[in-house]
Each structure stands twice: as structure tokens, then as C-alpha cells.
Specification:
It is a single chain. The strands form four sheets. The chain has a five-stranded parallel sheet with strand order 2-5-8-1-9. The protein has a domain at 128-281 and 323-417: Rossmann fold, CATH 3.40.50.300. The relative contact order is 0.19. By secondary structure, it is an alpha/beta fold. The chain contains 14 helices and eleven strands.
């Protein structure tokens, strides 16, 4: 089965592998549908691009493949496409109430700034369009992200470049077996000069926190971080202390080495909005990385690579207002429900997507629709975000794993069998 492809830009991409894609589209068109391909594009498009340290120089344009993996033939045939009329969704259940406060000009300006992120980050990260777009969607939805990839594919560099491009404060925390909850959230420290205890904030008091190798710390420390993620505050000695806004955790874990780790249970994985895979680069992209380092590129000096702020917290706030104004027809809501319920009935899964997964899928689809320049959600938006939103919320049965089943493969089957509204 194929994972739906993102819209393909109709104009040449900027000089980097993760340049901007559609802004004013009639809905992303999956690779296995017969729906029309948008002609006027400028917004970001999640793509299947490997992540790794990048070249500060120009990059060639690349096609717009699916989110995380090469497309595979779909034996079930093409899925029906839903293409609403211009500017609004059709059919019963479409809400037409007034949009939240905030002018259209502010929303358009915010969209333009967030769409420029990929070009800016592309100066130092090659081909990481999917993960970059996923991080922007998480910021718009106030959600958190789990990045999974082998060491050395520029996960840390990508987060640092994202923070610099958005004028956000960021911190990196290396999780180890001896890390204590107070090392994450902060603690009271006795001040001998005043004879009183004062609170010393931990690394969570930031806008963008990179929790490196979260599965290497014991469950007690993991729980402290996950509580901060959910409640967006830290309680010390009974006193709640709110975290900055925006606050997004980007946690990483190594998919190939599990010795001495504490895997996150399903209930904690469900707290992450998205799980993004960061694969190894292609040969051409790896050549560009090597060539950039040969020419003196220093990943520790983002300013020398030309990284500057193209958006900020104001654009994120305006973007959130714009996302809340995105409408979804009753048929689209029912489609999201049917997809999640189908995962619970799948014989290959021991655990399907929960109602929280359904709400997360709707939220990410609305954010993607807004980034694409539309004020309505289509089934294609739902298909585009189904895998990164649901893959960590389902559990494959051991006997199915022995036969080669994967979470992404099962989700592909669900997308191919659940009929999409027309």
C-alpha cells in the first residue's frame, strides 16, 4: 500500500533540499489517487527526506515523496479522493461560524514566515523536509515530537537550527541512567547568604527542549518529563511553576540499540503528538554533507552558516489562531473516527489508536491544511498525517511481527481499506 504523497510544488524549489512547498492548494493529492494536483503552491510539504548534517551552500530540488518511506504499490487500487470547492469544505456538517480573533493578514504573514523555515534550515540540514514540517505542525498544535533515528543523522542540529530560525530559546538534555527528576524539572537550593531556599529552574524551562535518548533514563525521570509535557508546569514543594509558551519537547531514541534502556510504555508514547522517523541519507545527500564539511562547514556555528530568524513566537501565536479557524466537514470527522476504529479491529494489532489518537490526527490534519493555505480539511490531509500521528499509538502483535508486519504497514492497510468520503 502506498503512503499518500504530499503536493508537488509547481515552481522551482529554493536552493536547498527542504525548500518550501504548497501554500494555496486544493488539498494534497495522494500518490495513489486520481485527484488533481495543485498548481499554485508555496506552503511546506511533509516529505520523505533523510535527515543529516547539511551543506550551507545551495541544494538541488528534489521530488515530493511520502512522509517517511518510499512508496509501495497498493494492491487495493486507488483510494477515492475528496476535493472540496475553493475556499470551503462541502457536504453536511461543515461549520461556517466566525473565525477566532486575528486578521487574515496576520495569518497569511504567519504562514509565510513558517513556510520560509524549511529554506532557512535547509542551509545547514540536507533533505529533512518531513521532520522539519512535523516540528512546525507540533508547534502549531502545542504538541511534542518523538524522533527516531540512528546516531549521526543531524537530529540535534535540526532542533538547534529550528530554534534559531524561530527566535526560540532551546536546551539539550542528555538522558542517562543516573539522571534524577530534579535534574530535569529543577529543585530548591539553599542559599547560605540569605538563609533561605530558592528555586533553581531545570532545563524544561525553555521553548524547545531536546531530550536526547529519552529511553536511557529510568521511568521515574521519564515520568517527571512527561508530567511537564502534559501539564506544562512544574510543581516543587507544592508550588506550581508554569513553563514558557511555546513549550515543545523533541525526544530522541535509538532504534537499533536497546541494551541498558527503559523503553517508553504505550501510555507514555501516546503523549507525543507525532513520531517521526529520521532515515539515513541517500548517496547524493551524503556526498553533499561531506563536501560541505570539506569546505569548512561547522555545525556548531549556525551564524556562520547564515541561519537567521525568519519567524518568531508572534507568528506561532497567529498560526495557532489560524489553525483553530480551519473547518472540517462531518464526513471528514467520521473518516478520522473510522480510521482509528479500524486499527482497534485489526488482527495484526494488540493495541489500536485511542480517542486521543483521533483528536491528535484531526489536529495535525488541520495544521497541515492551514500550512497548505486552506481553511478546510480534506481526507487527503488526514491520510498524509495518519502514519506520523498514529504509528506510535498502535502495538503490533508478536506473531505478526514474526511474519514481517510493522506499524506503518498495518496503517497502510487501514488507509487502503477504509473508504474515504468523496
Amino acid at each position: 500500500m502506498t503512503q499518500p504523497a504530499m503536493p508537488t510544488p509547481a515552481h522551482p524549489a529554493p536552493a536547498n533540499a527542504s525548500g518550501p512547498a504548497p501554500a494555496n492548494t486544493s488539498g494534497p493529492t495522494p500518490a495513489n489517487t486520481s485527484g488533481p494536483t495543485p498548481a499554485n503552491t508555496s506552503g511546506p510539504t511533509p516529505a520523505n527526506a533523510p535527515a543529516h548534517a547539511a551543506s550551507p551552500g545551495p541544494a538541488s530540488a528534489h521530488p515530493n515523496p511520502p512522509w517517511d518511506a518510499p512508496a509501495r504499490p497498493n494492491p487495493a487500487g486507488p483510494a477515492p479522493a475528496h476535493v472540496p470547492g475553493p475556499g470551503h469544505a462541502t457536504g453536511p456538517g461543515h461549520a461556517t461560524g466566525p473565525a477566532p480573533a486575528g486578521s487574515a493578514a496576520d495569518a497569511d504573514s504567519a504562514r509565510g514566515g513558517l513556510n520560509r523555515l524549511r529554506a532557512e534550515i535547509g542551509k545547514v540540514v540536507v533533505g529533512q523536509d518531513a521532520a522539519i514540517t512535523g516540528l512546525v505542525i507540533a508547534l502549531l498544535c502545542r504538541g511534542h515530537v518523538l524522533l527516531e533515528g540512528v546516531p549521526g543523522v543531524a537530529k540535534t542540529l535540526m532542533v538547534r537550527a529550528l530554534a534559531a530560525s524561530l527566535s526560540l530559546d532551546h536546551k539539550r538534555l542528555q538522558f542517562t541512567p543516573d539522571l534524577m527528576p530534579g535534574d530535569v524539572t529543577g529543585s530548591l537550593v539553599y542559599d547560605a547568604r540569605t538563609g533561605q531556599f530558592s528555586f533553581r529552574p531545570g532545563p524544561v524551562f525553555t521553548n524547545l527542549l531536546l531530550a536526547d535518548e529519552i529511553n536511557r533514563t529510568p521511568p521515574k525521570t521519564q515520568a517527571a518529563l512527561l508530567e511537564s509535557m502534559e501539564e506544562r508546569q512544574v510543581s516543587v514543594e507544592g508550588e506550581p511553576r508554569p513553563l514558557p509558551d511555546p513549550f515543545v519537547v523533541v525526544a530522541t531514541q535509538n532504534p537499533v540499540e536497546y541494551e541498558g534502556t527503559y523503553p517508553l510504555p504505550e501510555a507514555q508514547l501516546d503523549r507525543f503528538l507525532l513520531k517521526l522517523s529520521v532515515p539515513l541519507p541517500s548517496r547524493d545527500e551524503e556526498f553533499r554533507v561531506l563536501n560541505a564539511h570539506h569546505r569548512g562547514f561547522d555545525p556548531r556555528d549556525l551564524a556562520a552558516a547564515g541561519i537567521s530568524a525568519v519567524a518568531g513566537p508572534e507568528e506561532l501565536a497567529a498560526g495557532r489562531i489560524g489553525v483553530r479557524s480551519v473547518q472540517a466537514a462531518a464526513e471528514v470527522l467520521a473518516y478520522v473516527v473510522d480510521l482509528c476504529r479500524a486499527t482497534r479491529r485489526s488482527p495484526s494489532l494488540s493495541l489500536g489508536a485511542s480517542p486521543r489518537g483521533a483528536t491528535a490526527l484531526l489536529a495535525t490534519a488541520k495544521a497541515w491544511a492551514w500550512l497548505s493555505g486552506r481553511d478546510y480539511v480534506t481526507p487527503d490531509d488526514v491520510k498524509a498525517l495518519a502514519r506520523p500521528t498514529l504509528r506510535h499509538r498502535v502495538a503490533v502483535r508478536p506473531e505478526a511481527e514474526l511474519e514481517g508486519a510493522t506499524a506503518d504497514g498495518v496503517l497502510d492497510s487501514v488507509l487502503a481499506t477504509v473508504p474515504a468520503p468523496r
